[in-house]
DNA sequence: TCAGATTCAATGCGTTTGCATCTACCTTAA
DNA sequence: TTAAGGTAGATGCAAACGCATTGAATCTGA
């Protein structure tokens, strides 16, 4: 059990250090990192995403995400249309401009990520992906 | 290089999932998770900590941290006294009440962490700690 | 079939955040 | 000694956040 807490603390520290490092990089242009994250999550799904689904992948409260999508839609980066199957819901997708913006920022950012993780061996990268994947899979209790 | 990006994405997802899980737990009382993090960082150092040092460990901008410490000091949880060696600086430490609060919240939270990470084997915990430790160590570029 | 419970997303509101800037102090070197 | 440059932390201000709540649509069981 102390091992678990050490591991979690170490993960948190790595997250903080790398996030600060990435945030300081001059690649974000007109977006914040959080906004980029939303665009990135949308870029991964070809079929439109539900608000609640997107919210599961983003570290924001539901109202904050709702308003952020609002702003991104106003800026023409995200398309928000009503879900025909569930009229409470909303279907989110990137506009062409949104996709373009995501790619333009994603390219240099991906390089930064690769550079930051280049201290790890390929085996370590695989282990890290496997272990964190296992952690994220265990969503419920 | 695609491996590095997969690993980072997986780490981010694990972080997001677990943070949401922890945040939803009913253990935080009068504190937010970010405030708890500040108290926790202070609880680890017996000698008073400098603002800038603390800022390195917390995912907050310098002004945001400055004001958070302000509020925590107003609430009697943190002691902020001028550094005799450098009169620009500040020495931060927990008050007895702050230490008590940190412990009261830290205990159940540590149990949650252990529970969430219980899907991993002891070897995986060690690997995770080692790998993330390596990542956090590489602070510059 | 329809009342109650649940889910999805939006909105009101007070608090917190980040950016830019400021003041105060330290350091260096001429 | 002192002027120039750098660092530590605080503050003004607009933007963004979280909590609580709402309105609307769906689901559920009697």
Explained architecture:
The structure is a homodimer of 141-residue chains. The first copy, chain A, has 141 residues and is mainly alpha-helical. Chain A is globular and about 50 Å long. In chain A, a hairpin with a 7-residue loop joins β2 and β3 (90-94). Chain A contains six helices and three strands. The first copy, chain A, has helices at residues 2-24, 33-44, 51-57, 62-74, 96-116, 122-137; strands at 49-50, 78-82, 90-94. The longest helix of chain A has 23 residues, at 2-24. Chain A has a three-stranded antiparallel sheet with strand order 1-3-2. The interface between A and B is large, with 48 and 48 residues. The first copy, chain A, binds a DNA duplex (30 and 30 nucleotides) through residues 32, 34, 50-52, 60-68, 70-71, 83, 86-90.
Summarize the structure.
The structure is a homodimer of 141-residue chains. By secondary structure, the first copy, chain A, is mainly α.
List keywords for this structure.
9% strand; transcription regulation (chains A, B); DNA-binding transcription factor activity (chains A, B); 6 helices; DNA binding (chains A, B); homodimer; DNA-binding; DNA-binding (chains A, B); globular; 3-stranded antiparallel beta sheet; Arc Repressor Mutant, subunit A; 141 residues; mainly alpha; WH_DNA-bd_sf (chains A, B)
